[in-house]
Structures are given as structure tokens and as C-alpha cells.
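Review form for a predicted model. The reviewer records the input and the model, then writes brief findings.
Reviewer: anonymous (R2)
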Amino acid sequence: MSRRLVNLTLDNLDDVAPPCRSCVFWELDPLAAERASAGATQDVDKEAWVSKTLLEWGCCGQVMYLDGVPAGHVLYAPPAYVPRSTAFPTAPISADAVLLMSVRVAPTFTGGGLGRMLVQGVARDVTRRGIKAIEAFGRTKAVAEASSRGCLVPADFLLAVGFKTVRPHHRTPRLRLDVKSLVTWREDVESALERLLASIQVPALGHR
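Model under review:
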């Protein structure tokens, strides 16, 4: 089964599965989100947000494909592009971080580690862009409201993929993943492998 992680654009925005394709929980402030819901303009507002963010900041999401079938997605952006990011008791997001807005894997593809791969894709992207960290407002089991429950990444998942809690809260803790530590770990592994290979004595080829 082939796996492919592709940057989100307006061309593949429709591959973001519902309800996330039409959700503007993060992209609009609470009042504007209510107006969008009342006027049924969420699809248009989502497209406008993606277009603006791509033009002004760059890649703000990725889509995972398995054998060409959309299997999950991730959205992220600096907090200045995410009005809802100021509405949490553990706000604000740190100035050196981007906000991980959502990570979603289609139900038929859960359990295969795709969520971790999506977060790793974000880490690779922001590292190349000189960004130091990814932060997220986690969702604990105490969050019961249907209106926001699906829009927050479970805190247990974030902890499992390497995030650390920086602002505890019984409902929406803020967690952080230092991408520099990931890069340092990779460099350490590569350096150790180089030393190991250099220490191996390759026997000379003899005549048969």
C-alpha cells in the first residue's frame, strides 16, 4: 500500500473529509463562525481562509493518500491566522510556534499510525521554514460539548507523539512539540551511524 503526503492547496481542499471540509471553528472568530453557520457559507469561508493563508504564509496543511485515496489530513498555521486561538484559558500560543489546528484520520484507516505520520509531516515542514515548535490545545476527556469536541486534538494522542504539556488545564491543556529536539535526535542518530560504518573493517577481496 503506497502512502503519499501532499501539501494542501485549493485543488485538493475537497479531499479534506467532512465535517472538517466545512468546519470553520479555528478559521473564524466565534461570532463570525456563528454567522457562517447561519448563512451556510462555511465551505466558501474555508476556501477563503486557505487561499489567504497560502498566499501570505505558505503551506498550512497536508493530506495523506493511501493508494490514491484520501485517508487523513492535518491543518496548522501561526496563531495570527487562527482567530479562535485566543479563546482558550491556556492561550496564547508561544510566539515561536505554529498552532496545530486539527489532525484527522478517516475511520477506515485508523490504527495504522497515520496520525503520527501527519504530525511528522508538519514537523518536517516547519523545521525547513525555521520555526522552532508546534503547539496545540489538547482535548481531555472532560470536554463533552459536541460543538468543539471534534475540533480539538485529543491530549492523549499529542502526548503519545511527543508533545509535552506547557500549560496544564483540566479541559484544554496547551501542549508543545519542540521540533529542534527532533532534528537534533535525527542528527545524533545519523552521526552515530556514520561512526559505526567508519569503524567496520571491510575485508579485502581475494582471488578465487
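Findings: Residues 155 and 182 are 20 Å apart (CA to CA).
Further findings: The mean pLDDT is 87.
Recommendation: see findings above.
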